[in-house]
Amino acid sequence: MPKKKPHQPKKPRATRRPDAVTPASPCPCGRDATYGDCCGACHTGHAAAPTPERLMRSRYSAFAVGDAGYLLRTWHPRTRPAGLEFDVDQRWTGLEILGTTGGSAFHDEGTVEFRAHYTLHGQADSQYENSRFVREDGRWLYVDALPSA
């Protein structure tokens, strides 16, 4: 008679990752465009963000698709961390642009106030920030978050 194996508790199942974002997918940033025509073009280097808002949107999308390289390349060297790690259980679910200042072709500075929505371990939450951007050598770069008023 075969020996019975002792009962072992089932391992918890990993949270299923969402399907990969493809160039034909809707852009995670919320604009009415495909990822390939919108933020994906920035991520691959085929386009540059023309305004702080577009850079903010492309950075949000980089968080959504896990593109740490793009985030680091678009972070001002003065405030850029050495590296980034993503929480595999965090899913970015939406971006709201609440306001902008500056950032036109005539400016070298701008801000973008936003709320980024996400779920973490199945719990919905959001991150609020008023981000500061500067233009150097024709490229917009993320600097930091402005202190809350």
UniProtKB/TrEMBL annotation:
Q: Where is this region: Disordered?
A: 1-25
Q: Where does the record place the YchJ-like middle NTF2-like domain?
A: 51-145
The UniProt entry, under InterPro entries, shows: NTF2-like_dom_sf, SEC_C_motif, YchJ-like, YchJ-like_M
Which residues fall in a compositionally biased region of kind Basic residues? 1-15
Q: Which family does it belong to?
A: Belongs to the UPF0225 family.
This protein's name: UPF0225 protein SNA_18485
Q: Which organism is this entry from? A: Streptomyces natalensis ATCC 27448
